[in-house]
Amino acid sequence: MEKSVQYADMLKQKDLKSTPQRMAMLGIMEAKGHADIDEIYQEIKKDFVSISLATVYKNINTLLDAGIIEEIKVPQKKSKFEIVKHKHSHFVCEKCGEVYDVQKPKKLDIELPEGFEPREASVMIVGVCKKCR
Amino acid sequence: MEKSVQYADMLKQKDLKSTPQRMAMLGIMEAKGHADIDEIYQEIKKDFVSISLATVYKNINTLLDAGIIEEIKVPQKKSKFEIVKHKHSHFVCEKCGEVYDVQKPKKLDIELPEGFEPREASVMIVGVCKKCR
DNA sequence: TTATTAAAGGAAAATATTTTTCCTTTAGCA
DNA sequence: TGCTAAAGGAAAAATATTTTCCTTTAATAA
Question: Which of A34, A120, B53, B109 could form a disulfide with A80 if both were Cys (CB 3.0 to 4.6 A apart)?
C-alpha cells in the first residue's frame, strides 16, 4: 500500500482530516527520516508558499497527540520529529548533526532500584558518522 | 574535601569566578540532583532575592561550556541540568516527572553500520518510580 | 589592607520560540 | 451540492532565552 494512503488511514482513525499541508508534513518527515521544525517549515514552503509557521506547530502537536509522530530530543540540538515506526535507537553525529536510526539493543542490563518499573528505554549514541570520518 | 571547595577549584581551573550566585546554583543542582531552569531560579531567589533570571541563564551556559554541568534532555519535559560526575543513565518517572540516576548498562550491544564511530551513549528509561506505584 | 581590573551581576530590551486568537477556507460527509 | 466542524493563515500574545549596558565584585598584586 502506498505511504500516503497509509497516512490518510492513520489520520482517519484518529478523526483527523487529511489536509494537503498535513500530508506534506508527513511526507517530509518520511523522506528525511528526522526533521526539526525549521527544516519542515523551510521544506514545506517550497510547495505551500504561504503556509503559516503556526500551522506547522499546530500539526506537529496534533500528530504528536495522535501518536503518529514522536519527538526525539537530541543532545545540544533542537528536537527532531519522526514518524512512529518499529522501536529503534538513534545515533547522532557530533560533526554534522545528522540523526540516524540504528537497531535497538537486544537487551539492556540496567539494574533498577527495587520498586522502579521500566516501561521503555531510549538510547542515543553520540559519535561520528561514516560521512564525517 | 568539602563540596563547595571542590566547586571553587573546578571554577578556578576554568578561570571562572566563584561568585555566591554561582556557588548557590551548584549547591542547588548538587542538592536536587537534577533541576530545570525554573526550579533553580525559584530556589535561588530564596537566598538571592533580587537575582536576575538572566544571571541564571548566563551561569548555566558558562557552566555547560566549562563542562562542570550537563544538560539532560527528558522526553516530554523541560531540560534538566546536573553536575557532571561519573557516567550513569537516567530514569524518568512518567507520573511525577522526577529524574533518577541509575547505573549505566554494563555493555550495550548495538550493532552500528560500518563506518560509524560511537563515542558515548546515553540511556533514558521511562517508567514509574517507587513513590508513584 | 587597599587598589586595580576583568569578570560577573542586574535590569531592561531584544530576539527566538511556541501558542493562541479570530476569522476564513476546506475536507468529509449527508 | 450544501453543511459543518476541523484546519489553515495572519497577527498577536505568551513564553523562553540572549544580549546590552551599566554597576558591582572577586581575584590578584602592590
Answer: A34
